[in-house]
Amino acid sequence: MSKIVVGLSGGVDSSTAAAILHNQGYEVVGLTLWLMKGKGQCCSEGMVDAAYICEQLGIPHHVVDSREVFQANIVDYLVAGYSTGITPLPCSQCNKTVKFGPMLHYAREQLGINKIATGHYARISYDSKSGRYQLRRAVDRNKDQSYFLYDLTQELLAASLFPLGEHIKAETRQIAAEYGLKTADKPESQDLCLVETHGSMRSFLDQYITGKKGDIVDSSGKVLGQHEGVHHYTIGQRKGLGIAAAEPLYVIGLDAVMNRVIVGDRTSATQSEFTVQRVNWVSITEPSAPIRAEVQVRYRSNPVAVTAIPLENSRVKLVFDEPQFSITPGQAAVWYDGDKVLGGGIIERQESE
Q1: Are residue 145 and residue 221 in the same domain, yes or no?
Q2: Residues 151 and 22 grouped into a single domain
Q3: 42 is a catalytic site residue
Q4: Does residue 43 carry a catalytic annotation?
Q5: Contact 342, 307 (CB under 8 A)
Q6: What is the pLDDT of residue 202?
Q7: CB burial class (10 A; 0-12, 13-18, 19+) of residue 263?
Q8: Do 277 and 348 meet the contact criterion of CB atoms below 8 Å apart?
Q9: Are the C-beta atoms of residues 343 and 284 closer than 8 Å to each other?
Q10: Is the CB of residue 250 less than 8 Å from the CB of residue 234?
Q11: Are 49 and 142 within one domain?
């Protein structure tokens, strides 16, 4: 019988993933990472529900105190980014450095198990021609989480299973109900775990960053208003500026050094190209020449056509066929060939910002 460690957050998705594998004959071990205090599904309430699910399934349950790892890799990462005027994306960072990597290490070193699984909506296939594992979109495009998984290595993909990748969300709840799982009707997490715990990203950041009043200016430097902290703003933001203008204004730049928020019209907030750093080529090896692809610059954005040009030092330039709005430094850009994730990286700040 094959053994597998399943990451359990206490939500319906991870619970159902564990139940599916258990029903398929795997010897399942539940593993919950204690990331922080609070009401988020990955925390106190989630740990209780995860333990209950393991009791229901008759499987062992392990809890690993990952609070220091989470603090260093996610909380400190976010605070440092917002302090310098970028908008970091914590989820892909968390998946690689807090969840999948440590989960696999614990499974191998402490339990002697070489396979892990989660409740993510994505799929993994193996291409025998290239000898690479490929990350693909889930069948349920509305729930697809491949965007957040672009940074997984070949080693992690080879060791991972995504039992929900072939299911739509309604089927997941139906399966959970059929197994009589306590979490079958549990509401979904709607926000980042940090946001759920603190009420808003603003409240979270205000605990770590002291707001400093400064100017809101246009691209020529003319003062249009005041702000109470650069970390409260993000590129492309329109609401909450408190400025009366003849046409809508958007945040087009954040200058943490000068403590300024720079605004402009919508055209000013569009770009025809940008670069990404810390690139991970997922399903293919790094190409030696430009390739065509479709890129997502936010989780919910529609994929748009680009030319991806490999650069030195794990960087890639992405050139849009048509200029796009609100390219946000610190967020992830993930490029695809159909449902296959080719690669991804972190959007760099433009030199002019």
Answers
A1: no
A2: yes
A3: no
A4: no
A5: no
A6: 84
A7: buried
A8: yes
A9: yes
A10: no
A11: yes
List the CATH number of the domain containing 246: 2.30.30.280
Domain that holds residue 257: 210-264
216 and 85 together in one domain: no
- How many folded domains does the chain comprise? 3
pLDDT for 350 equals 74
DSSP annotation of 187 reads P
CATH of the domain at 339: 2.40.30.10
Answer yes or no: are the C-beta atoms of 136 and 127 closer than 8 Å.
no
| Active-site option among 42, 43, 91, 94 | 94
CATH of the domain at 104: 3.40.50.620
pLDDT of residue 351: 56
Judgement on whether residues 285 and 229 belong to the same structural domain of the protein = no
Q: Point out the catalytic residue in the list 43, 54, 91, 193.
A: 193
Helix, strand or coil, per DSSP, at residue 265: coil
DSSP 8-class letter at 312: T
Global confidence as pTM: 0.92
Contacts of 99 by beta carbon, 8 Å cutoff, 6+ apart: 7, 33, 118
Neighbours of 48 (CB within 10 A): 12
Looking at 264, 280, 295, which one is the last position of a domain?
Answer: 264
Structure confidence at residue 41 (pLDDT)? 41
Same domain assignment for residues 97 and 223: no
Cα separations in angstroms, 268 against 121, 151, 219, 223: 36, 31, 9, 17
CA atoms within 13 A on the CB side of 160: 31
Distance CA 92, CA 71 (A): 15
